[in-house]
């Protein structure tokens, strides 16, 4: 295993992101289309939050819904992206070591870290990326 290998080696660079003006219906389409669980929320490429699929589900599925995949458009309009997203997020830069990223995810109980260089979102590292990296090592 390479010591201090940077997250730039494993981060996802083709970023799927939302803007604060997007709606929850757009978010659901992105989650489903790309089979992802975390979407950074940006304003002019600057990260302002993170929307996780689990947080999305908590606020968008009525408790009485029989089919959680058939969400009523009224529910979509009940909340904005800004109301649902996590705002106090931790970002790392592309030179952060993979080990340090794994440590942050483990200690803070996060599942994704936006990668920001010079104030601009350049990637995302998830627990899936880390697991795949460690699997390749052995």
Automatic annotation (TrEMBL):
Record carries keyword Oxidoreductase: no
PROSITE patterns in alphabetical order: CBS (PS51371)
Keyword Transferase: no
InterPro entries the UniProt entry points to: CBS_dom (IPR000644), CBS_dom_sf (IPR046342), Diverse_CBS-Domain (IPR051257)
Domain of life assignment: Bacteria
Alphabetic keyword roster: CBS domain
Entries under SUPFAM superfamilies matching the protein: CBS-domain pair
Residues of the CBS domain: 11-66, 85-138
UniProt protein name: Acetoin utilization protein AcuB
Organism the protein comes from: Mariniflexile fucanivorans
């Amino acid at each position: 295993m390479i010591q201090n290998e940077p997250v730039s080696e494993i981060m996802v660079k083709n970023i799927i992101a939302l803007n604060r003006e997007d709606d929850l219906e757009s978010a659901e389409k992105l989650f489903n289309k790309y089979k992802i669980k975390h979407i950074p929320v940006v304003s002019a490429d600057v990260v302002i939050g993170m929307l996780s699929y689990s947080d999305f589900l908590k606020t968008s599925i009525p408790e009485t819904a029989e089919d959680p995949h058939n969400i009523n458009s009224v529910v979509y309009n009940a909340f904005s992206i800004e109301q649902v997203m996590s705002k106090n997020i931790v970002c790392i830069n592309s030179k952060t070591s993979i080990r340090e990223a794994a440590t942050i995810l483990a200690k803070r109980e996060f599942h994704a870290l936006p990668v920001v260089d010079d104030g601009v979102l350049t990637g995302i590292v998830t627990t899936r990326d880390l697991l795949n990296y460690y699997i390749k090592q052995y």
